[in-house]
Amino acid sequence: MERNRLPVEWLGVAFGAAIVVLFAPAWAFAQQAPAVDTPSVTAAPRLLATRANGPVTLDGVLDEPAWALAPVASGFVQNEPAEGRPASLDTEVRVLYDDRAVYFGVFAHDDEPGSLVVSDLRKDFNAAAGDAVLIVIDTFLDRRNGFEFATNPAGAKWDAQMSNEGRESNANWDGIWDVRTRVASDGWYAEIRIPLLTLRFTRADPQTWGINFQRRLRRRNEESFWAPLPRIYDIHRVSMAGSMDDLRQIRPGRNLRVKPYAAGTSSSGARPTKRELDGGLDVKYGLTAGLTLDVTVNTDFSQVEADEQQVNLTRFSLLFPEKREFFLENSGIFQFGLPSTGQTAVGSARPAASGRQNSPPDMRLFFSRQIGLSSAGSAIPIQVGSRVSGRVGAYSIGALNIQQAEQGTVPSTNFTAVRASRAVLANSDFGFMLLNKEESGAGYNRVGGVDANFRFGELSLGGYAVKTDAPQSVVPGSGEDFTARANFTYTSRTWLARGLYEVVGQRFRNEMGFVPRTGVDHVASYGRMNLRPAWASERFSIREIGPHFHFDQFDRRDGTGTESRYLDWHIVLTMNDSGFFEAGVNGNRENNVRPFTLNAARGVIVAPGEYDFDEYFALYRSNNAARFSFETRFSSGDLYDGHRNGYAFAPTIRMNEHLNASFSVQVNDIDLPSTSYVSTLMAARLDYSVNTRVFFNALVQYNTDTEEWSSNVRLNVIHRPLSDFFLVYNERRSGSTGDLVDRSIVAKLTYLFAF
Questions:
Q1: What structural domains does the chain harbor?
Q2: Which of 79, 398, 410, 505 keeps 20 to 30 A from 325, CA to CA?
Q3: DSSP character for 311?
Q4: pLDDT digits over 175-196, tens only?
């Protein structure tokens, strides 16, 4: 359809020029400002681990004689907001160990303990929303992988398994450990016990582990580290961590864990009431100091939290995160290639509002949600599964095999994934991955690829090449059955730049991965300037100004032109209290060769053709450490051959550390030549923590497109470490009549035996 207006490219150039003209003086002023005390290139700090000369009682009181003999890690250095300067309030950390565990004694100085910010008590709490202390331990001293632990003044626990310095930080990993905290008149204390069985390490004697400590002083939005880090890095950067020396006569033990479960389910609704009793078993065994064998029998995922619904305004599938426990441990080993998207900070949460919504998702060679779930997201039983994962010297190894049961029209299916990579240079690697999906009597799909990832200081380079194999009965027609990519990332205090070139063949078929498009050449670039003028902070409480652009283009490999193009120009203001403002224009070009369904529930179809449309938006996220915070987004612009106004609002109330409640509403007011409609998605979430072992949460969602209410209510009681009782209630009801669609109640008990 013809439009009498400037092309989006010219709008983008004009917007970018305005940003440069407007903020060039600020940039120049920032350059003239006094330089920050950036961390000097000196030897990493070292801490001598001390063997405890008696029992350590975990009570948050560091009164055992051994604590007084242990050396102190102190002198923390800021990386936010005043990089390189001493922390405004120092932190002291001591380390003890014995034959069974390693202990951390933390004292966080604070002359205003009544002003501590405690966000919640939940397991895997949001460590970015309150005061916290974080620890990273690089047990193999490979300067790239580690275990992460965090706690807050109320003793909540957060842990993660980190790979390749943050290329993946798996916060869904759970380890056995415990903590007790105490708030005093001059600060707060944390006494942490991490059993050696939780960690993986060699049998060398003595040993040295990489280690770093982080303090988050939330009311000042201050981050400080024992081993100083530039502000462009976070605690994942273990290549710059300090060390914990002289660990003697410690052994990882047998590392055998047996975790049976028993579950009862009652379901009702359109079908007759059905009651089932079930049971299964998970076993974990340490084959070597670095390799672990996991076996699962009759796997059950009924306690997994429900997915949050998303609004899709594109013709491509949405990407939902993996939440199932069996697939989470060591999942970073199966990551392939260098991701083209940025990393989020430790403990941060995905925002409800973002600059570009429905952006093209990145391809993933291995995506575990393809196993045990149908295309509609319903569970398919997993009969048995096994996985070997871990590290042997310079090699990272992962091998997984899952047997999925037959269900309805889905045949019995076997999934195999093999991944190996070798560490080279200071922090680089190369490796391969093999995937195989075998459907009983229905064909196969095989994938093989090699990748290499190199990091040289501020510059990261990556690339891969992958080929697939499937019979004509599975993937008919002709065409290329490979994909290849090369990409780079450059990060400095002032600049962030990313770029990639990717080829995806028309016959490329990967049924164990996530592949949003085939038959395209993809080029993408991202550039951002980070400015910190002193006047912006002093006068307007703006910590950082970040003008940036994002460009994505997909051209069809058959020579029929451009399939999609996105050109975004944004300006970001990050506030001193962590508030966040972003505004800009998102330019779109979509060339559809066939009709596609925009809204299935309403029967809205977008006809073939070329569409140019722009979205203008502004969003704001307030300080999430406040008792009341909110996110909001407004947008207006064309949508295909029509118009769309978008509204989003998501307030959150933190009554205290026990009770958090949030509500979100997204409204899309869409006017197309064929139809007009308003689509609304609402979600309400309640999280109540009785203490750090008993949690109640509820998620209620309503979608006007499907006219359906969905509810997910969970009670989780941790009756002993990594042993849970779950009571889960799921329900769907018609929004127009209130009639029950389906309902299920699940009670599940797990019990961990650790040897």
A1: 42-247 (2.60.40.1190)
A2: 410
A3: -
A4: 899 999 999 999 999 999 999 9
Percentage of residues in the chain with pLDDT exceeding 70?
91
At 539, which helix (H) or strand (E)? helix 534-540
Count of all residues that appear for the chain in the document: 755
Q: Are the C-beta atoms of residues 116 and 133 closer than 8 Å to each other?
A: no
Yes or no: say if 551 and 564 are a contact pair by the CB < 8 Å rule.
no
Contact 94, 69 (CB under 8 A): no
Question: What's 506's DSSP letter?
Answer: T
Cβ contact 378:322 at 8 Å: no
For residues 587 and 568, is the Cβ–Cβ distance under 8 A?
yes
Q: What is the pLDDT of residues 90-124, one digit of tens each?
A: 999 999 999 999 999 999 999 999 999 998 999 98
> What DSSP element (H or E) covers 189?
strand 187-195
Q: What is residue 354's predicted lDDT score, i.e. its pLDDT? A: 65
Q: Which tokens sit at 302?
A: 């009924």
Tokens of 29: 């002023």
Residue-wise DSSP of 101-135: EEEEEEEEE-S-GGG-------TT--GGGS-EEEE
Long-range contacts of 630-637 (CB under 8 A, 24+ apart): 631/351, 631/352, 631/353, 631/664, 632/353, 633/353, 635/357, 637/586, 637/613
CB 168, CB 331: distance < 8 Å: yes
Residue 300: per-residue pLDDT: 81
How many CB atoms neighbour CB 309 within 10 A? 20
Angle, CA 293 vertex, CA 319 and CA 203 arms, to 5°: 120
Q: Say what the pLDDT of residue 2 is.
A: 36
pLDDT in tens, 11-60: 333 434 343 333 443 343 334 333 444 444 457 899 998 999 989 999 99
Q: How far is CA 157 from its chain centroid?
A: 17
Strand, helix or coil for residue 332: helix
DSSP annotation of 561: -
Q: CA 447 from chain center: how many Å?
A: 26
Break the chain down into helix, strand, coil percent, rounded to 5: 10, 50, 40
Which helix or strand (DSSP H or E) is residue 24 part of?
A: helix 8-32
pTM summary value: 0.83
The alpha carbon dihedral of 665, 363, 390, 241 has a sign of: negative
Angle 359-362-363 from CA coordinates, rounded to 5°: 140
Phi, psi at residue 15, to the nearest 5°? -65, -45
> H/E element holding 522?
strand 520-529
| Residue among 506, 457, 451, 455 at smallest CA distance from 477 | 506
Residue whose structure tokens are 């407004």: 634
| Bond into 206 cis (ω within 30) | yes
Residues 6 or more apart whose CB falls under 8 angstroms from that of 103 comprise 52, 56, 95, 96, 97, 191, 192, 193, 194
pLDDT at site 255: 76
One-letter amino acid at 479 equals G
Distance CA 488, CA 718 (A): 44
**pLDDT score, position 660:** 94
Buried b (16+ CB within 10 A) or exposed e, 645-658: bbebbbebebeebb
Q: How far apart are CA 416 and CA 406, in angstroms?
A: 17
- What 3-state DSSP class applies to 507? coil
